[in-house]
Fold:
Amino acid sequence: QYYRAIFEHNHSFLSMGTTRATAPKLMNIQMELRKCCNHPFLLDGVEAREMEKQQKELMASGDLEGMPLEDQQHHLNEKGYVQTSGKMVLLDKLLPKLRQEGHKVLIFSQMVKMLDLIS
Structure:
């Protein structure tokens, strides 16, 4: 939905819940679309909005009930960072299998922020 909003110049959707300064800039559409394809959290203001939304959903469903705070944060990070990006879902499934088989993995990215999200 973020990709479509960027592509269609939907400023109202992209700036929902953010200030004008933290809303994604649409000067270079191609770069913003690349960021979105790598991970939506690379766009300005999206991470806070999505993490808050995930936390509300998990609290409403009762998934976080009875968990220690540290486990709640781990569960929220897993749902937020991994499940919001198809590439991260693939890595989450693929890397444990490769590690189990004794393979070594080297990940390259032109975007340092993407490597930060992976780590």
Q: What stands out?
A: Residues 46-61 form the longest helix (16 residues). The CA atoms of residues 4 and 17 lie 18 Å apart.
